[in-house]
Write a structure and sequence with these properties.
CATH architecture of the largest domain: Sandwich
Structural class: alpha+beta
Largest sheet: 8 strands, mixed
Strand content: 25-35%
Strand order of the largest sheet: 5-4-8-2-1-12-15-14
Number of domains: 4
CATH topology of the largest domain: Immunoglobulin-like
C-alpha cells in the first residue's frame, strides 16, 4: 500500500473480504515442453452489446511496441455451457457476441521470451508479466481483478513455488492459489516467477523485501547480497522520506533469473524483474567487489529508485498509460537519466562502494557518451520522444545518429546537481528537486484521491522555484540542445580532477567490434574514423591485417606495431565475398576520461555523500 501522511489504504488490501471478483483469470502451465500457458478469463457481467478484450501492445518501462497478441495461439469463448462467437477487430483486440454472462474466454499463450518484458515457460521455471498474458476487459479495468495461479501437474514441478508482490487472496505467500489486484493497471505491475528458487528476506525501514534467485547459482553468498541490498534500499527510502522513512509499498520483491551471460531489468511498483550473468552474483568466501557484482547492485539500485521515479512520479503522458499505442514524452532523460545518476550514487551513499569506485563508474559513463557522434545530432529531449522508433530499435549506425537519454541524462543530472549546489552555496541541489517532485507528484499517486503526471514543460519551472536559479540557458544548451556538458570545470569546483588520457599515439580502426564465435565482427563504424574512410561496414568479418590473422578479440595487438598515418592492407569478408581494403590508420581518439580526487580536495568533494 501507499504510505502517506494520510495513511491511505488501497482497496486491494481488503480484496480477500470481497465476494466473486468481476474479472478473474486462471492461468495454468499447460505444456512445459511446448512453452504454453493456458488462461481462462471470466467476466461476470460482460458488456450487453458484446464484450471487447485487448492485449497490451507494449509493457510500461520498455518503450517499444511489442504486439504481445501475436503470441496468442488460439482462443474460444463460452457462456452457460454454450459457445459464444467472437471476431477480431484489430491485431490485438477481440469482441465477443452479446451474452447474459458470465462469459469465459479460453486461450493459449506461447511463452518463450527469456527477458524481463514478456513470458517464459519450460521445465526449469515459469515467468510472466501480466501485460503479455492477461487480456484486458475493456470498460472494466477499474474492477477488482483476481488471478488463480495453478500448480503444474508435471512431476518436475513438484518443488515449485510462486514469487510475486501481488497481494494474496486465497493463497499462502510463495504458494500457488489466488491473488488479487484493485484493477488492471495494478495487475500488470506485478510480474510472477514460478519455480524452484533461492529465497531470502530482509527488512528496510520496517518493510519486508524478498530476494528471489532462479537458476543455478552454486555457492551464492545470499547473506552478503541481502546485507548490501538492505543498505541501498534504506538509503533510498530515507532519501525520499527523510522524516518518516516510509516506503511507498508494503512489501517489495527483487526477482532475478540467472543465465550464463545476460543483463536487464524492468521496474514495477512493488517489485523488479532482473536478468544477470551467473558470474555477477557474490560467491561465498570471496569478499572482493567484482565488476560484475557492482554492476548487478547498480541494476538493482536503478530499478528500486524507479519505485519513486517513474512508477509514482510519472510524466503526464503515462497518467494513465495508453497500452495499445505509443505514449510520447520528451522527459525520459529525467525519468531514466536521473535514475541512472542516482543508481550508482546510492551505491556510494549506502557505503557499498567507495568514492574511487564511484568515480570510475562515472568516468565510464562520460566515455560512453563522448564516444558517439550522435550526441551532436540529437538532444536528450528528442531522444526521449523518439525512443519508440530509435532508441529501442537501434541499428549499427546508432552511435552516429542518436544519444542515450539514460547515459547523457545521467550526466545532465550530475551537471545540474553541481550547478545548483554551486549557485546556491549548497542550499539547494538535485536532491531538493527530487524530494519536491515526490511530494507534489508521487506520494499520493496511487491513493484514492489520485495524482497527476508531470507536464512536458513543468520541470524547468519547478527547478527554478526550488533553487531560485534561472534554468533556461542550461536547458537550451544541454536538454533541448546538443552541447557537451562542462563537466571538467564543474567537477574541478568540488575537488575532482577530470583528465582525458586517450592514447593519441596508438592507431585504431575507429570501429566497435564483437567476438562472434572466434571471428572479429564489425558491430558499428564510428563516423570519421579510419574504418569509415576506408569503407569498412557493419557485419564485416576481419580476416587479416598485412597478411597476419586477426583473432576474435580484434586487431589491437597487431596495431601496436604501427603508428598513426601508416597504411595497412585489411582483408575482410562481407557476406561471402573477400574484400581487400587499404586503410590509413588514424590516432585512436576514443575518449579515455579518468576522474579522481584532487590531492587536497575542498570539503565540497563530499557532496556525493549528501
Amino acid at each position: 500500500m501507499l504510505h502517506s501522511p494520510a495513511r491511505v489504504v488501497p482497496a486491494v488490501v481488503s480484496a480477500a473480504n470481497l465476494g466473486v471478483a468481476p474479472v478473474s483469470y486462471r492461468i495454468s502451465s499447460s505444456d512445459l515442453g511446448g512453452h504454453l500457458f493456458t488462461v481462462a478469463l471470466t467476466v461476470v457481467s460482460p458488456d450487453p452489446d458484446g464484450q471487447s478484450f485487448a492485449l497490451p501492445a507494449w509493457i510500461p518501462g520498455s518503450y517499444m511496441i511489442r504486439e504481445f497478441a501475436r503470441h496468442i495461439v488460439r482462443l474460444r469463448a463460452e457462456s452457460g455451457g454454450k459457445k459464444i462467437s467472437f471476431k477480431k477487430t484489430d491485431k490485438h483486440t477481440w469482441q465477443a457476441a452479446p451474452c447474459a454472462g458470465p462469459l469465459t474466454v479460453h486461450y493459449e499463450v506461447y511463452a518463450w521470451d527469456l527477458s524481463v518484458r514478456a513470458a517464459h515457460l519450460d521445465r526449469s521455471h515459469g515467468f510472466f508479466n501480466s501485460s503479455s498474458v492477461f487480456l484486458r476487459v475493456l470498460g472494466q479495468e477499474q474492477q477488482l481483478h483476481e488471478v488463480d495461479i495453478v500448480r503444474p501437474g508435471d512431476a518436475a514441478c513438484a518443488g515449485w513455488r510462486v514469487a510475486t508482490a501481488l497481494p494474496e487472496r486465497n493463497a499462502k505467500r510463495y504458494g500457488f492459489g489466488t491473488y488479487a489486484a484493485s484493477g488492471y493497471d495494478e495487475l500488470i505491475d506485478h510480474p510472477v516467477e514460478m519455480g524452484e528458487f533461492v529465497l531470502s528476506t530482509f527488512t528496510a525501514h520496517g518493510v519486508p523485501h524478498d530476494i528471489v534467485i532462479s537458476g543455478r547459482t552454486p555457492n551464492l553468498d545470499l547473506p552478503r547480497l541481502a546485507q548490501d541490498l538492505k543498505k541501498i534500499c534504506e538509503a533510498q527510502i530515507a532519501f525520499f522520506e527523510p522524516r518518516s522513512k516510509r516506503a511507498p509499498m508494503q512489501r517489495y520483491v527483487f526477482m532475478t533469473f540467472v543465465v550464463g551471460n545476460g543483463y536487464g531489468g524492468l521496474e514495477h511498483r512493488a517489485s523488479t524483474a532482473l536478468i544477470c550473468a551467473r558470474s555477477d552474483l557474490p560467491v561465498i568466501g570471496k569478499a572482493e567487489m567484482t565488476d560484475g557484482y557492482r554492476t548487478y547492485l547498480g541494476l538493482c539500485s536503478h530499478e528500486y529508485f524507479h519505485t519513486w521515479n517513474v512508477k509514482r512520479i510519472k510524466p503526464a503522458a503515462f497518467a494513465p498509460y495508453d497500452l495499445q499505442n505509443e505514449n510520447y514524452t520528451s522527459l525520459l532523460w529525467l525519468f531514466e537519466g536521473f535514475t541512472s545518476y542516482y543508481d550508482d550514487l546510492f551505491l556510494l551513499r549506502s557505503g557499498v562502494i567507495d568514492i574511487s569506485a564511484y568515480l570510475s563508474l562515472l568516468g565510464k559513463t562520460v566515455n560512453g557518451v563522448l564516444r558517439g557522434s550522435g550526441r551532436k545530432k540529437q538532444s536528450v529531449a528528442e531522444s526521449s520522444f523518439d525512443t519508440w522508433g530509435k532508441y529501442y530499435r537501434q541499428d549499427e549506425n546508432a552511435p552516429n545518429a542518436i544519444v542515450s537519454y539514460y547515459t547523457k541524462g545521467s550526466l545532465i543530472a550530475l551537471a545540474l546537481d553541481l550547478t545548483l549546489r554551486a549557485e546556491t552555496g549548497g542550499r539547494s541541489s538535485l536532491d531538493s528537486v527530487m524530494q519536491v517532485l515526490w511530494q507534489r507528484y508521487g506520494r499520493e499517486f496511487y491513493s484514492p484521491a489520485g495524482g497527476r503526471g508531470l507536464g512536458e514543460n513543468e520541470i524547468e519551472a519547478l527547478i527554478e522555484e526550488v533553487s531560485g536559479c534561472r534554468m533556461k540557458r542550461f536547458f537550451d544548451r544541454y536538454v533541448r540542445g546538443t552541447e557537451d556538458l562542462p563537466l571538467d570545470s564543474l567537477l574541478a569546483q568540488v575537488g575532482i580532477a577530470y583528465s582525458d588520457t586517450r592514447k593519441i599515439a596508438v592507431p585504431g580502426l575507429g570501429v566497435r567490434l564483437s567476438n562472434d564465435h572466434g571471428e572479429s565482427r564489425v558491430a558499428s563504424v564510428y563516423e570519421g574514423g579510419a574504418g569509415h574512410r576506408a569503407g569498412l561496414s557493419a557485419d564485416d568479418r576481419l580476416v587479416a591485417l598485412d597478411g597476419l590473422r586477426i583473432p576474435g578479440s580484434g586487431p589491437d595487438g597487431l596495431l601496436e606495431r604501427y603508428r598513426p598515418g601508416d597504411s595497412v592492407t585489411l582483408h575482410v569478408f562481407r557476406r561471402d565475398e573477400l574484400l581487400e581494403l587499404r586503410v590509413r590508420l588514424r590516432a585512436d581518439d576514443a575518449p579515455q576520461v579518468k576522474l579522481s580526487l584532487a590531492e587536497k580536495p575542498p570539503a565540497a568533494a563530499n557532496i556525493f555523500l549528501r
